[in-house]
Amino acid sequence: MSIPARRVETFGTTIFTEINNLAQQYNALNLGQGKPDFDAPGDVVGEMVKALQAGKYNQYAPGPGTPSLRKAVADHAARFYNLDIDPARGVIVTAGATEGVLSAVLGLVDPGDEVIVIEPFYDSYVPDIIMANARPVYVPLHPPTWTLDPDELRAAFSPRTRALLLNTPHNPSGRVFSREELTFIAELCIEHDVTVISDEVYEHLLFGSAQHIPIATLPGMFERTVTVSSSGKSFNATGWKVGWVYGHPDLLEGVARAHQFVTFAVHHPAQEAVAYALGLPDSYYQEFQAMYQAKLALLTDALDSSGLQYRVPEGTYFVMVNYARVFEGTPLEFTHHLIKEIGVACIPPESFYSQEHVAIVQGYARLSFCKNDDTLRQVKERLVKLQR
Ligand code: PMP
Ligand code: GLN
Predict the structure, then answer these.
(1) Least enclosed by CB within 10 Å: which of 104, 199, 303, 331?
(2) What Pfam families does this protein map onto (predicted)?
(3) pLDDT confidence of residue 387
């Protein structure tokens, strides 16, 4: 008898868990996992407390999500993107974006189908595709600009391509895909009749003049896109694991069928609080962006005296740094050096690549800046040591 199943044979411990353990062991400032070290807004937490004590939200929520959260998701999509979403049939609340992507893959992709994955990819995408008995087809972004080669993307489409997994703003590169790039992807998906699963969890984490464009808003795309997002990033509430998928009801039907038997329903009181949070005024979202813009400035200030090279991200709370000037070795070796000798943890991005393309990311590591300002200032003091 083989234990565990072949399906999960290639799944190792996630890099986030591995690095958290190491960072703790060496008392390093942890810029690894994208986990804020500050709290969710007090009024949002207050809504959860109220819901917990109201006496009516402590049992199963409706499977597809509470009416209030589904309406809030639809209203948010109308307010920010001018999208017309049916709260009843076009929204499913999931256990984070992680379950959103899994339920979308399980509900929309058949065994044997191909799914195009843009590298570097969020680490759960490929296991999701494998668990659906489908096949990932990899197309890399090329550093230092982290852009697609149009010919490589075109060549990845085949008669078996069923879906393309997109992530914008993009973890870990910090890219926000432009209208031109998204139009090129959209045209290929329309030509080959492919569904897009668009992971937009960093939709509100934008810098400078960057604008987030949901691919569902491009001509001909609404009927072939499911959009996934989450409360984790926008409300510093990664521990709540409340996410959602929205789109055309015909596509959402597949996602809903899978979701019923993956989790059935999501934490009920948290849905009340997230419904409230999504409806916060524009000033909340503006202050949120200003807070992160200041954190980005603290990190780039630290990087400027470190010898690490970087491209300023347009979105997300990640920066990819190139360490070639200060260290020779693989990203994993650099990560060990940074944690043990310098006292700062980062994420080596090898886990975001297939074997065939992992060489592309040689010389790079990911730093996350969803951290207290004091932590980011201390990082500067430590990173200076890289130069010596
Ligand atoms: N997608 C991307 C691109 C992410 O970076 C993350 C995690 N931070 C997720 C999905 C998972 O989101 P959640 O915690 O809501 O499951
Ligand atoms: N999304 C976060 C990151 O990329 C963490 C996710 C996780 O720990 N699975 O760092």
Answers:
(1) 303
(2) Aminotran_1_2
(3) 84
Identify the three-state secondary structure at position 344. strand
Nearest ligand to residue 232 Cα:
1
- Provide the number of structural domains found in the chain: 2
Clarify whether residues 223 and 304 are in a common domain.
no
Best residue among 238, 241, 318, 371 to mutate for probing ligand 2's pocket (most ligand atoms within 8 Å of CB) is 238
Write down the pTM of the prediction. Answer: 0.97
Instruction: In whole angstroms, give the CA distance from residue 203 to residue 97.
Output: 12
- Whether residues 248 and 327 share a domain: the answer is no
What is the C-alpha separation between 349 and 335, in angstroms, rounded?
10
Instruction: Identify residue 346 by its one-letter amino acid code.
Output: C
CATH number for the domain spanning 335: value is 3.90.1150.10
Ligand 2: which residue has its CA nearest to atom 2?
34
Range of the domain at 320: 6-40+283-387
Residue 16 tokens, joined: 């986030």
Average pLDDT, stretch 192-199? Answer: 98
Ligand 2 in reach of 171 Cβ (< 6 A)? yes
Q: What percent of the chain has pLDDT over 70?
A: 99
Whether the CB-CB separation of 374 and 29 falls below 8 Å is answered with no
Q: Residue 271: is its pLDDT beyond 70?
A: yes
| pLDDT score for 1 | 66
Task: Determine the distance separating the centroid of ligand 2 and the alpha carbon of 200, expressed in angstroms.
Answer: 14
Tell me the C-alpha distance between 66 and 72, whole Å: 10
- Ligand 1 binding pocket (C-beta < 6 A) is 34, 96-98, 122, 167, 171, 199, 201, 230, 232, 238, 241, 243
CATH classification at residue 88: 3.40.640.10
